[in-house]
Write a structure and sequence with these properties.
Blueprint lengths: L29 E6 L15 H6 L31 H15 L4 E6 L7 H16 L4 E7 L8 H11 L13 E6 L6 H13 L4 E7 L7 H6 L2 E4 L8 H13 L3 E6 L3 E3 L4 E3 L5 H12 L4 E4 L20 H15 L9 E6 L18 E4 L6 E8 L3 E7 L2 E7 L2 E8 L6 E6 L2 E7 L16 E4 L9
Parallel strand pairs: 1-2, 1-10, 2-3, 3-4, 4-5, 5-6, 6-7, 7-10, 9-12
Antiparallel strand pairs: 8-9, 11-13, 11-19, 13-16, 14-15, 14-17, 17-18
Amino acid sequence: MASRFHAVGAADLVDVLPFKPVNLGQSGREVFAHWHFFAISMDNKPADVDYYATHFLDPAHPEGKTEGFGSALRERPLPRDPYQGSDWAVDDLVCDIRWADAIGIDAFLYNIITIDRKSPFWKLFFDMLEAAGRVGGKFRVVPNLDAPLLLERPVAEVAAAIVSASGHPMLLRRETGQLVLGAFQPEAWPVERWNSLFALLEREKIGIEFMPIFLNVRSAQDGHWSKSTTVGEWSGNFADGVGYVAEAAAIVRRHGKKWCAPVCPQDVRPKGGVFGEAANSRLFRDGWMAAINGHADAVQLITWNDYSESSAVRPSTLIQYSFYDLAAFYIAWFKTGRAPPVTKDVLYYFHRVQPTDGAGLGMSQARPFALQWGREPVNDVELLAFLIADGELQIEIGGELHRLAAKAGVTSMRVPLAPGRPVFRLRRDDRTAIEFVSADTIGDRAEFQDLVYRGGSSTRPAAAAP
């Protein structure tokens, strides 16, 4: 068998996380992660010639290009060697599930974009169920209907597809036996269509606990509310917009429903030439604090692996394990009700590899990327420090050395983006306790803009991209 990376369990995270993983208990608060169709591998080929490299990341390929904005994706899952076995797709999903389960994620919301039984994406749904069975434990899978993409399919066919999977033991069910069913943008369906679906499922003796995720909860109609138990919103994708999510939460609770809070790391869409301003790690951290302080009943991570919108939390080539590790910290806080004490010095960084504007950027683009979500672009390098004791943080970039006295706990240090490769340090007691270099160099010239934030940490060596 070729060597490959392996997802690890919670016990294996002790040496890399800034806190000791704890038993998350039975708080009743759940964390879901939206799983899109970007599997760890699409074809089990070497990473330099696989589908990601030759299609999604190639601006010259018909399936990889966008309308004048370069390749369809800017990053990809961490590369692995080909796996010698016929069930490599299931094995990759085992890795996904182990990664998610290790940090306290309860279930994947598998985004069902098709119910065509011959489609590889429908097969992938059953592969995920098989993978969850192999992992065992409490992790589950939730079928999540992509309502706009299924709008033209007869309701009877949608119901039949759900029925065909409904008996699998790794689907999330409640103690009452109800099957949890999610939906993305449920307002795309008229209420009558949902009523028909649930009636058909009821005839098959399948009770449903409905968890719709609206693009805007204000568009929900009375019929939507009556069918729902937990309700969320696909929002909170820019740093200054997290506060607006509280309005959605209030609407959901006025209707007597449980609130599923959105938490998003960033949103950059080459497919449309638009982006939201995440302000390094602030969007992700603010999203978590809004869920914690707002006493959300559940959280949806937007997303586990949607690379077309650059919103992945899954360990990947550009973000590495940065958002994954932060998710572990905040999930523990969300579920236990208290911030985990910092037990190890760990430094994380977040920065882009180019400013949001400049004469030498996007020279082959149709137009510059547009800031669609946010007040103004942020061009900073951030050092996010988890410290067991006071110390001095340093960022060296562009020929300048920046210093900040930091207290024990969590500190965010930000300095202006500048050309070069940032160096990050922690100094304490007149000595350098930690020093490491970013995996990426900041420049000011590029054929196509790349506004995806990079990330890394002092405890994990960067995995090289092909």
